[in-house]
Amino acid sequence: MSGFREFLLKTNAMALAVGVIIGIALGNVVNSLVNDIIMPPIGLVLGGIDFSQIKWVLKAAVNGDPTTEVAVRFGNFINLVIAFVVIAAVVYWISKMFIKEEVAGPSKTCPACKEANAVDATRCRACTSAI
Q1: Sign of CA dihedral 44, 50, 51, 52
Q2: Are residues 78 and 36 in the same domain?
Q3: What is the pTM of this model?
Q4: CA of residue 54 relative to chain centroid, distance
Q5: Element (H, E) at 12
Q6: What is the CATH number of the domain that holds 79?
Q7: Are residues 69 and 118 in the same domain?
Q8: If DSSP codes are grouped into helix, strand and coil, which group holds residue 14?
Q9: What is the mean pLDDT of the chain?
């Protein structure tokens, strides 16, 4: 049990678990945003279309039984593609807010290999030439 505890505490497993949980919650919020807020006005503008019900019927239902119908339901696919684009945009914006690139400090370039080194270095870290 202590090995498992060390694994959780010393690796990024806990951060990954938190990320997955937040990602699932974010996905549900964005799906609701797309299905309940974005798509109804778009469907209204396009003539009252419910995108989740758009389909191409290959074989009509027999005796009114909807389970016998064979159809390609591409309207739901359109909803899911829009949801994916919105989720990707939200994740991109969140990552831009929280993940900042480190600003490179001053450095000097090795004349032999052109590798950047610390300002106070006397030898190159890549080729060990004197700087």
Answers
A1: positive
A2: yes
A3: 0.54
A4: 27
A5: none
A6: 1.10.1200.120
A7: no
A8: helix
A9: 84
